[in-house]
Amino acid sequence: MPAHQYLYHFIAFLAASTIVLWCTPVVKTLGLKSGHVDRPNERKMHQKPMVRIGGVSIFVGTIAALFTVWFLGAFTGLTPDRKSEILGVMLGGTGFFCIGLADDLFNLRPLSRLAMQTVVAAGAWNMGVSIDFLSIPFGNLVDINGSLSLLVTIVWLVGMANAINWIDGLDGLAAGVSGIAAVVMLVVSLFMDQPAAALIVAALAGGALGFLRYNFNPAEIFMGDGGAYFMGFTLAGVGAIGLVKSTAITAVILPYLILAVPIVDMSSVIVLRLSNGRSPFLADKRHLHHRLINAGISHRLTVLFIYALTLWVGSLAMAFSGIPSGEAYAFGATLLLCYVGWQVRRNMQVRRN
């Protein structure tokens, strides 16, 4: 890929972060005036009402950045099928954002949200945002199509959107995890020669990391379901069109590895709820961040530990993909995780004593 082509990715990142930095205070003001705030309760960690529609700025910044590079010619030369996939991710992300924003404003029922998410995910699949291969452990790839591809794709897209939403329990957690995952996916997508898909995560990374300026502890605003659904779907969509489309076994498993932290967190919580005879949709304090807080770890250290964990699995994905110096990145991320983990352990011991 010519070096000048990377300029589009830089523009997408910079435009998204700039728009989000400018737009978020406006959204906060509108949220306060309209009364769309998230009020404290026994399950939530914040102590005062917080504006919960910050996802509007992430969505606006990301989409505006993508339209900017689109008009600059970043997507020129794509085949019709490839353009359909890109539009499928953008339109699907828009649909998931609208569902989340409607929930932020009107408190939709869980099954209603799930039904609407399924319809939007099916529409994205019809536009080419599809998983066509599955990797069998210690085996070869299995080609899937038709209804099975539709089912697997819906589970992936809907599941990831909700996984990001479920980890949005501490200031800056979902935005930081999504931003780190987007940066890793950007690097891997470029290495796998998927520049169009990489443009989407470049913009998303800029939007997520720009939002952290106002969302990191102590947060001034929350992204709400709209922001979380949008980022989760977009990450999953790029994974489907940018990596899973490849027939290489390593490429097929990369998005699952990059997004392992929210995937494992959501899966474990669902299993625990079902094993206790509870609805998987009934919120509780069984997430990893809740467990760390309950163990006496500070808010910021809990978030930083999960950041380090996300970066670590992302670095493993980079090493596994064959990126030059990937092993060195993985080694560095491992050292960082060990250091932050040691800080967590020390804090737990101090509390016990």
Query: What is the string of helix and strand elements?
Result: HEEHHHEEHHHHHHHHH
Largest sheet: 2 strands, antiparallel
Principal-axes geometry comes out as globular
Q: Averaging pLDDT over every residue, what do you get? A: 91
Query: Low-confidence parts lasting 5 or more residues at pLDDT below 50?
Result: none
Please give the count of helices: 13
**Helix share, percent:** over 70%
Q: Tell me what portion of residues adopts beta-strand conformation.
A: under 5%
Q: What Rg, in angstroms, do the CA atoms define?
A: 19 Å
Strand order of the largest sheet: 1-2
Termini Cα gap: 57 Å
Total DSSP E strands: 4
Computed structural class? mainly alpha
Please give a structural write-up.
This protein is mainly alpha-helical and 353 residues long. α6 (173-191) packs parallel to α8. The strands form two sheets. Strands 1-2 form a two-stranded antiparallel sheet. A two-stranded antiparallel ribbon has the order 3-4. It is globular. The chain is built from 13 helices and four strands.
Features:
single chain; 353 residues; mainly alpha; two-stranded antiparallel sheet; two-stranded antiparallel ribbon; 13 helices; 3% strand
Q: Any chance you could write out the topology, listing elements then pairs?
A:
Blueprint: H1 6-34, E1 37-38, E2 50-51, H2 55-71, H3 80-106, H4 110-126, E3 133-135, E4 141-143, H5 146-166, H6 173-191, H7 195-215, H8 224-243, H9 249-258, H10 260-275, H11 288-294, H12 299-321, H13 326-352
Antiparallel strand pairs: 1-2, 3-4
